[in-house]
């Protein structure tokens, strides 16, 4: 049985040091503010990035290209490793498609090696939580095919629930109308969204006020989690206090503590904006 490595991308919003600790290779998406140079994910501190967004600057993002993935994959293949790539939702980014393009080229050049690419249909720490489970499975001794099957079995049940502080960022991405964004700002209406079975952001409901949006997400966790005392991740757009408030709400309803708080990076943050709070866990369904 050949050894294999797990690879991914920075759409997972897991800190780079942790990815390295897990033994996960990765490539970064990139972003730029209007009139500024292109920045790879991780180059700009999150605090600076969100300060610029709060000041009104607009950030645009770019997927990882296939050549970048080809270079990453080929390093492992030359060392005799197979590759299990676990990637960013195709409903949001072309990154997973780029990985598959690179894999197709390399399968011809390295016919004795296995390259398995999986579009998780997940984003941010939802993709990160899938990676967590895949790394655990590998460490338990699962081979590449067993692990790939396991990862695919998790995807339909990886729930993403999130809310945003300001609807203007979702408006820019076409997720809400200009009228809804204006009304939300005036009336304090907050959307509660999730990522659907096709990996796309979907507006599920509207509630009034920040606390109510967090309570709604906590309730969804208690109602649908496979194990309310089990593992869940919370990611946040430069608002750790609110992330911890959500954890407290979950605990108050009988749930466990958060396994990992992650800062939403510059890629997801470009679309969701500062003040975003997101919850990820295995549920009865997405």
Summarize the helices and strands and which ones pair or pack:
Blueprint (H helix, E strand, L loop, with lengths): L3 E6 L6 H7 L1 E4 L2 E4 L5 E2 L5 H9 L4 E4 L3 H13 L3 E7 L6 H15 L5 E8 L2 H15 L4 H11 L3 E6 L4 H5 L5 H10 L1 E7 L5 E8 L1 H15 L7 E5 L3 H13 L7 E4 L2 H7 L4 E6 L4
Parallel strand pairs: 1-2, 1-6, 6-7, 11-12
Antiparallel strand pairs: 3-4, 3-5, 8-9, 8-13, 9-10, 11-13
Helix pairs in contact: 3-4, 5-6, 9-10
Textual characterization of the structure:
It is built from eleven helices and 13 strands. By secondary structure, the chain is of the alpha/beta class. It has two domains: 152 residues, Rossmann fold (3-Layer(aba) Sandwich); 126 residues, Hypothetical Protein Tm841, Chain: A,domain 3. Helix 4 links the parallel strand 6 and strand 7. Helix 5 runs antiparallel to helix 6 and helix 9 crosses helix 10. The protein is globular, with a radius of gyration of 19 Å.
Quick structural overview:
With 286 residues, the protein is of the alpha/beta class. The chain has eleven helices and 13 strands.
For the structure shown, list the relevant keywords.
Hypothetical Protein Tm841, Chain: A,domain 3, 13 strands, 286 residues, Rossmann fold, 4-stranded parallel beta sheet, 2 domains, alpha/beta, globular, 6-stranded mixed beta sheet
- The proportion of residues forming helix, as a percent range, comes to 40-55%
Low-confidence stretches: none
Helix and strand sequence: EHEEEHEHEHEHHEHHEEHEHEHE
Largest sheet: 6 strands, mixed
How many distinct domains? Answer: 2
Strand order, main sheet: write it out: 10-9-8-13-11-12
Structural class estimated from helices and strands: alpha/beta
Integer average pLDDT: 92
- Work out the strand percent: 15-25%
| Morphology call | globular
Q: What is the CATH topology of the largest domain?
A: Rossmann fold
Number of strands: 13
State the end-to-end distance: 34 Å
Q: How large is the count of helical segments? A: 11
């Amino acid at each position: 049985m050949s050894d294999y490595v797990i690879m991914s991308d920075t759409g997972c919003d897991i800190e780079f040091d942790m990815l390295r600790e897990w033994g996960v290779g990765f490539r970064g998406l990139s972003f730029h503010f209007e009139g500024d140079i292109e920045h790879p994910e991780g180059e700009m501190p999150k605090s600076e990035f969100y300060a610029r967004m709060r000041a009104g600057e607009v950030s645009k993002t770019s997927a990882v290209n296939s050549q970048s993935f080809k270079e990453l994959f080929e390093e492992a293949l030359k060392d005799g490793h197979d590759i299990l790539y676990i990637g960013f939702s195709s409903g949001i980014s072309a990154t997973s498609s780029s990985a598959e393009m690179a894999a197709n080229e390399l399968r011809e050049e390295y016919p004795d090696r296995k390259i398995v690419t999986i579009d998780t249909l997940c984003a941010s720490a939802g993709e990160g939580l899938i990676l967590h489970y895949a790394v655990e499975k590998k460490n338990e001794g699962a081979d590449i095919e067993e692990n790939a099957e396991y990862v695919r079995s998790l995807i339909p049940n990886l729930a993403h629930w999130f809310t945003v502080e300001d609807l203007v960022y979702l408006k820019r991405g076409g997720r809400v109308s200009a009228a809804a964004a204006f009304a939300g700002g005036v009336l304090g209406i907050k959307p509660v969204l999730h990522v659907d079975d096709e990996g796309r952001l979907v507006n599920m409901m509207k509630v009034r006020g920040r606390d109510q949006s967090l309570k709604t997400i906590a309730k969804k966790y208690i109602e649908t989690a496979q194990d309310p005392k089990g593992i869940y991740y919370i990611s946040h757009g430069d608002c750790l206090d609110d992330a911890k408030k959500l954890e407290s709400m979950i605990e108050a309803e009988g749930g466990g503590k958060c396994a990992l708080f992650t800062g939403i990076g510059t890629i997801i943050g470009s679309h969701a904006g500062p003040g975003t709070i997101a919850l990820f866990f295995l549920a009865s369904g997405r």
